[in-house]
Amino acid sequence: MSEHPSSRPQTPGPLHGIRVVECGHMVAAAYAGKLMADLGAEVIKVEEPGGDRARQRGPYPGNVPHPEKSGLFLYLNTNKRGVTLDLETAKGRELFQQLVKDADVVVHNYHPTQLASLGLEYEALAQQNPTLVLTSISPFGQTGPHREYTAHDLTLWSAGGIVFLGGAGGRPDLPPLKAAGQQAGFQAGVNAGIASLGALYARLGTGRGQHIDISVQECLVAIMENNYIAWPYDQTTPSRLGFRLIPQDVLPCRDGYIYVLAVEEHQWQNAVELMGNPDWADTELFQDFVARSVNWDALKALLADWLQDKSVHEVYHGAQQRRVPFAPVSTMGDLLKSEHLNARGFFAEIGHPEAGTLRYPGAPFKFAASPWTLRSPAPCLGQHNEEVYCGQLGLAPEELQSLQATKVI
Amino acid sequence: MSEQLPLSGVRVADFTWVWAGPFCTLQLAHLGAEVIRIESESRLCVTRRIPPVADGQAGPNRCGYFNQYNQGKHSICLNLKKPAGLGIAKKLVATSDVVAENFAAGVMDRMGLGYDTLKTIKPDIIMIALSGYGATGPESPYVSYGPAQVPMSGLASLTGFPDSPPMSVGFSYGDPNGGLHGAFAVLAALMHRARTGEGQYIDLSQWETSVALVGEGIMAQEMNAAAPQRRGNRDPHMAPHGLFRCEGEDRWVSIVVADDAEWQRLCAIMGKTDLASDARFATLAGRKDNEDALEAAVTAWTTTLSAEEVTRTLQAAGLAAFPAITNKELAEDEHLRSRPFFARLDHPEVGVRQHAGVPWNFSDTPCQVRRPAPCLGQDTGEVLQRVLGYSADEAATLKDNEVLT
What's the pTM? Predict the structure, then answer.
């Protein structure tokens, strides 16, 4: 058993005292829960008896699947307590109601078509806890003609309009390309975190809770920068195959890849100086950033030629010392070794009873007065059943056994 | 339902510009905060200068990028190089709850607007600095743009086709992602202040908020000293899982088949009994081992159909599919319009344009875009008089002295 979060003395996080119940699968609800838990909220993760599907995703140590050792699950569920509960049963829904009675926030990503059978409808929960904030994340929202559509991360990245932008320029034979990982889930999660805290802040004034309906598709359309708005403004459609006004690319060095970007003229001039003022840089072909964009293929070949015997390190630091915003194309190993990230204490280490001691991505923001903390690892499946059901809800040990025997938990 | 908005009464002195910072304060404006952007005529925000511009006609108030990212905000022009301009900025901070900025590390300090100064003016101020590298660390003075966060964070090294170099994700993902994490942090700090009365400084590194998105990759490296391979649109646990060519030029549909039963349903829909009984494809392991052939078989079906028809047919059977939708199709999407997701407000220079609106529906304190993005400096006089208590004469003098430029 890991220690209960409150048993260690810590400076309380900014969300100290906020009680959150989280349920669902995979990334979106879990990331919202993690953002709050890592800032001090008390988060209870309610899993179906079979466990969150993130437990089946890996990565695993030695590539051997094990539900307590999935890297995705371990990362997303730090600082939470975990219980199991079958919301498909009447007894399960009754226990859930009790759990929610004292909660400030419930965040979930169950599909709109499942809410009635899982007891997650707002009216029912609000009846016994009118101050509850219920944050429901779903692929396309709780209303509208696509509300029943089913989705995974890839189809959401498509539905948000983002996949159409990604991929290999100049290769119409290749499909658009999604970003790696579970990006739709992360974006929905941070949006759910914002909306949940917004509603908690509103409650300070109104005294009332409310229901928040979050559509993952909308979260993605909202982050497309100038790519969505190009249609209403000038009726253009950006795509992976289109012209890019700002020359930028990933190019190979001797020992890895560097990302080259020079937005402002002085940045380009400094990059030219870094390259030793080659004669070609002085030609009309590359005289301003429009010319450099139009002639990017030719320029790329010249840059690649210059880069091929250089190290990423020398190009990156050499460029940055001249205020040129080149960046390393980091591998996961590079990040863990990064002098800068380690100087900031970014990675946070903690032990887990099954997965062992590992370093995790740490605070994405540093609070001066009420810090982000890593207090406990992700819970094992049902790890806190006794603590929550008996300790918090007051069930007798025999009742717990009966719940286990009937597979409610 | 309440007239009150979640952040009614919260004022934000917004020194941000370009991308990540304005996206952070956009969320606060969506939630009802009074966000006052401090701008400068001599140093126009990049998003007031770049395409898309309304109907091809350039101008600082006609840019789609700015008008999308600054909905609901106010704009004042201040010359912070003049002592009087700096003084007005400090007066604004004194009446604000939050200060947001995304200059390179150290710039606010050099302008005389560092946190140590501001907290003497407003002891419980919440200040967030969004920078590429964070306020500390050996690389903190380095220059960073949002698109660079994708390679820096390692996301690019995981994104791409198996035989391709690392690839970008098609947009400047690091900026909106940093802005959203920043908005979450500000809200947490507001909750902390409500409980304790204490403000604080928040140091946000866009690099770190981007690494937060590749947690499973970091874990893979920690566990096995090896990162996942680039695998295009494929997934280790589901197949088919990809984008499939459809009828029309550059038309694609995304399809995900989560398990063996779904594969059988897809075969039935495609009318391919031979595939349904093909032993190579019966299990996930088999479909992964024969994924090229699997994708070719699905493509043979999708290429004869429109992406919309594939989507309708598969969704009717409970299978995940959606077209690789374009911005035009998003703008015309009946579902999004019905929610209603889009904000259509009348802007003095560009008229009614359909902007992306608030992606959260609140039942009790409904958040909507309440005013279009401001024209440059449109609220200078109003803020000086209503918020800061200057008289009309004083404001006119400041204008004559070129403080409000």
Answer: 0.97
Task: Please give the pLDDT value at position B209.
Answer: 98
How far does A298 lie from chain B, in Å, by closest CA? 19
Give the closest-approach CA distance of A310 to chain B in angstroms. 17
Contacts of A165 in chain B (CB under 8 A): 169-171
* Rounded (to 5) percent helix, strand, coil in chain B: 45, 15, 40
Which of B8, B198, B361 has the CB atom closest to A212's CB atom? B361
Residues of B in contact with A326 (CB under 8 A): 148
Given an 8 Å threshold on Cβ–Cβ distance, is B52 in contact with A226? Answer: yes
Token pair of B119, please? 């907290």
Q: Can you say how many angstroms the Cα of residue A38 is from the centroid of all Cα atoms in its chain?
A: 13
- In whole angstroms, give the CA distance from residue A184 to residue A173: 25
Residues 6+ apart with CB under 8 A from A343: B136, B137, B138
Residues 6+ away with beta carbon under 8 Å from B319: A150, B255, B256, B257, B262, B265, B266, B269
Query: Where does residue A264 rank: exposed (0-12), middle (13-18), buried (19+ CB within 10 A)?
Result: middle
End-to-end Cα distance, chain B: 41
Contact B322 A72 (CB under 8 A): no
What is the rounded distance in angstroms from the CA atom of residue A131 to the CA atom of residue A197? Answer: 13
Q: CA angle B84-B87-B89, nearest 5°?
A: 115
Q: Residue B333 catalytic?
A: no
Strand-pairing partners, residue A45, are A22, A82
Instruction: Measure the CA–CA gap between A356 and A66, rounded to whole angstroms.
Output: 13
Taking only the tens place, the pLDDT of each residue in A164-221 is: 999 998 899 999 999 999 999 999 999 999 999 999 999 999 999 999 999 999 999 9
